[in-house]
């Protein structure tokens, strides 16, 4: 069991998660470096932004939350951070698909202390007021979850404007295979099991042309991406151009912050850097080299790169300025 103090901290984290949520969750995980083996918390922190992108499988963040507990232990501090990840809102691209996906694997999360917690969704989603209230309540008073997936719990408690997703990427309507149920502590009929044995990674992330808070989509939205490109909107292709600023990465002092691209494809082979200009240049180069971005995206990236250079700052506000300039 986790303490009430830890639970309150989670509520604060969840309430703030909508803005810069990838960095917030990443910093929370990074702060667990006193647990597990040296470097494990940092490695897990580096994996967290990817599972909150719109194109990520909705089961991936539950798998990562389980891994956090498996590797770092079940100390209340660890459980609190894992709960924050389970409850965190996954990004949504309103230009492509405003309907969120929610994990339909009855075996996830596997950690008992994480079960019954349901996620936040974008406030622009119809019915989000119900789901977001349920999410906040579930952090301290989890829903009954025996034999149920997160999708089943969400549906049973009044929110149906979502798509069920298994860990292999298969999707279905919200009600497909779901059991009927009640609220926190209520009896809920078990659903038909969903085969979610093999995780998958969805690689393409397409971004909107202006700052919208949340962005990104998966390969099923290619038509929307093409329409955006025809209108001269930035299309970042296979990548997300966002960067992160994190204190105390592996090998760094606890008070030493460094920059790194969030997207694994952009960051491949790149070490974190104290100088943000190194990382923004990497992002812009990769848009051409590997991301298949359109010219509007490349131009937007160079403009954001110039902005960062003109600021001359080297802190979290620097990463935020770069990301916001690109529509995040």
From TrEMBL:
**Swiss-Prot/TrEMBL keywords:** Signal
The protein in question is named Circumsporozoite protein
Question: What is the annotated signal peptide range for this record?
Answer: 1-17
* Feature: compositional bias, Low complexity: 210-229
Q: Where is this region: Disordered?
A: 207-229
Q: Which organism is it from?
A: Immersiella caudata
| Source taxon at top rank | Eukaryota
